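for the record, two folds in this file. i put them one after another cuz i was lazy. first one right below, seq on top, structure tokens after. the second one comes after a little note so u can tell where it starts
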Amino acid sequence: MLKITRLETFVIGDGPDVDPDQGGIEPLACLRIHTNHGLIGFSEVFRVPPGVVQATVGGINTHFGQLLIGQEITHPERLWQHVWDSLIHTNRRGWEIIILGALDVAIWDIYGQSLSQPVWRLLGGTQRGPFQTHCETRLQSVVPYCTIVSEVWGGELMFQQQIERIERLLQLGYRAFKVEPMMSTPRDVVELARRARRLSGPESTLMVDVGYLLNDVPTAIRICRQLEELDIYFFETPFAVDTPEPYARLAEQISIPLAMGEHGVTRWEFLDMMDRGRVSVIQPYVTTCGGMTEAKRIVDLALARGALVCPGNWSTQILGTASVHLAAYSPITPHIEFAAAEVFDSPLRRELQERGLPVVNGEITFPSVPGIGYHLPNEVVTKYRID
């Protein structure tokens, strides 16, 4: 029997000298699950304070240790449900579920290794119907869209920095981009998108993310009406996500699909986005939403509603590798988010990307190695460890 014997955590990061706006990796908790057969599962825990992870994931007396150590890995979904049911007297949201999500990804990693299969095959394999397949459908790869940020927001310097980064990535073969005119005027939002479209040309995919910039629907309508002529693939997070009602009001008035979900936790929040908010592009982070088990359910719910799933990832290619497995399973995932290390001043981001799945001609081929397939050498952990 394959059983969990130990939970391990550690924290890596670029350190205080590398600005997150320049792609720096802030303190990032990672975890390993050890088994009695020597198989080890690995994941990162994005957007949870590392101290919380270290306090709850460890020995038999920790919050998750008492739930998982000694458990047999018969199937990841059984363990996910075991932990979920054990948390019924907590809020089953927030940090607790994000950590469960990371543990779930690591368990899927072990499960795939034990069966000598990549995780995406165990999720169900590629799901592409013969009558829903056209020349742009990729049966064995996914196209990453590069998220473009700048060191300043608003005005000419923002335009210059983000456009220069797109130009560099175009030269490297990337062909999908998301500009981020955060903390900017409505005029600057439109201007940055215009310059990005002019540079990238009509064949590139272009998205716009304003990072919860707006409070009122009329301003959002005015911005989107101008963006419509630029063939924008989606318009991301115009409003705070506390309520989906403004999203629904905006969706009624524009033709650009609305996107949200980077901090969504559990399928129930994504159902709310789609059913009440009329959001047609949802962006689960594979760990944040509750793990690969929950992300698979989210894909199934979105498919029934005619929505797209474009997994988010403003983190590292540890998480990005898990996103590729979800994309391989999903018939509604043409793109995944990608923070390209080539345009950021982060040594750690570069090292983590080099060990991830390669981008060739703007595409990532679905992996064939067992499990999730991301290996982080101990020498890299030692070099960037900050706990």
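(here's the note) second protein begins now
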Amino acid sequence: MALRAYFEGLAGEVGYMTLIDSVKEHNFLAGLTDAQANKVIALSEEVAFPENQLILSAREQSRYFYLVLEGSVAIEVSTRAYVVCIQALGPGEAFGWSALLEHHDTMFQVRARENCRALRIDAADLAQALRNDRELAVEILSRALKLAAERVLGTEARLGELCGVRVPKRLAEIRPGPGLKPNL
């Protein structure tokens, strides 16, 4: 269901503007102009994932960019023998930034840690909107670059922990997920 239709369906219960405003306050969208946020929201649809569902697979091209609304997801590296959680993300955070790059495979897999809801944005639709609005493009791509940098820092911190290396304070503040778990 398109997000705008979803909001319109709930308008009588909570109020249309209240819901739109709450989505605009998502960390990734916060600070965009109303017109810019509305463009992104119009491209979005709400999706739900049950606990433990694989959302993105490693080594595949992602078609979607996600904004977490409720629940949490784990950014993971997986082998046949084990899975390492690199970072856990919750409401207000985003994942799937590699979908914004043409012909780029994902490095990590993303799994729902619990039941969660997210906004899913089709990368091809977003790319078209960014080509048509250079100011929006600068805002979205700058934010996506920050996400990529956070993943690199999270990976550095997690690898440091696993190798027994003292992790600098700036890396220790990145929230890694819960250790190794068997890959069943």
